[in-house]
Amino acid sequence: VDDAPEPYEPLFEDWTRGLVVVAHPDDVEYGGAAAIARWTGQGKAIAYCLLTSGEAGIDGMPPDQAGPLREREERAARTAPA
Ligand SMILES: [Zn+2]
User: How many whole angstroms from 22 Cα to the centroid of ligand 1?
Assistant: First the structure.
């Protein structure tokens, strides 16, 4: 079938430090967790840059509460034991 999607090209991996830039807390976990787990398993250093605290992301919770909560969740997720 000619309309089958092309497989992804493998990414080169001859690097040691990476920066992940996302809009909100939890975007990394939903979008890139498997790749980041692979890379950290290879010994690469990965830093995150979250452009917001996700303060508008919880229905019914004021931004001044939601932002700090989502920051705490993100930090806890990064330090949870395997
Ligand atoms: Zn998001």
Answer: 7
Quote the ligand 1 centre to 23 CA distance (angstroms): 6
Q: What is the pTM of this model?
A: 0.75
Condensed to tens digits (0 to 9), the pLDDT of residues 52-76 reads 999 999 999 999 999 999 999 988 8
Interval between CA 54 and ligand 1 midpoint (Å): 8
Radius of gyration of the chain (CA): 16
**pLDDT tens per residue, range 25-34:** 989 888 888 9
State the DSSP H helix or E strand holding residue 46, giving kind and residue range, or none if neither: strand 45-50
